[in-house]
């Protein structure tokens, strides 16, 4: 896969993310503090990586900043990009399966090498449409509707009677089967 990776800080863990992705066979293009001459700030660096996804130059992005919050916000401003800030493997898998995320936002502050590996395993091992149900698909489609009609909340694609889902069962099981009913 072609992965655009950005960071606003040239931190060892950000470099480790790049190396880990390459080790897994991905073609990585770096942005921000990871590339000479790029503007490093989180809004700019994450935007650059997200635009690579939106343009088709990259399949997915990994956007990093100290908290991961700013990078995820910037990436999500780019139409067509669905960035998810994930601090654990369970969230990473859910973001891919249930929300069809195409950008992984990471907190440089929270990441260790071990956690990074777990999150990347879950992200890339998750079947793209795993146990995604009709309501998930409606939600994902609605993200596109929000982008194209931001002033018309809920219309016209909202399902008529959304079902209230129960909360997922507690527990980690990042790479395992769905815990959601
Ligand atoms: O986590 C972040 C944004 O969500 C940034 O990495 C953090 O705020 C540091 O950025 P700056 O050096 O520009 O203040």
TrEMBL record:
Keywords: Isomerase. Belongs to the LacAB/RpiB family. The keyword Isomerase applies. The keyword Isomerase applies. Transmembrane segments: none annotated. This is Ribose 5-phosphate isomerase B. One of its GO terms (molecular function) is ribose-5-phosphate isomerase activity. GO terms for biological process: D-allose catabolic process; pentose-phosphate shunt, non-oxidative branch. Residues 166-181 have a biased composition (Low complexity). Residues 139-181 are annotated as: Disordered. InterPro entries: RpiB_LacA_LacB, RpiB_LacA_LacB_sf. Pfam families: LacAB_rpiB. Gene3D superfamilies: Sugar-phosphate isomerase, RpiB/LacA/LacB. The lineage of its organism: Bacteria, Bacillati, Actinomycetota, Actinomycetes, Kitasatosporales. Coiled coil: none annotated. It comes from the Bacteria.
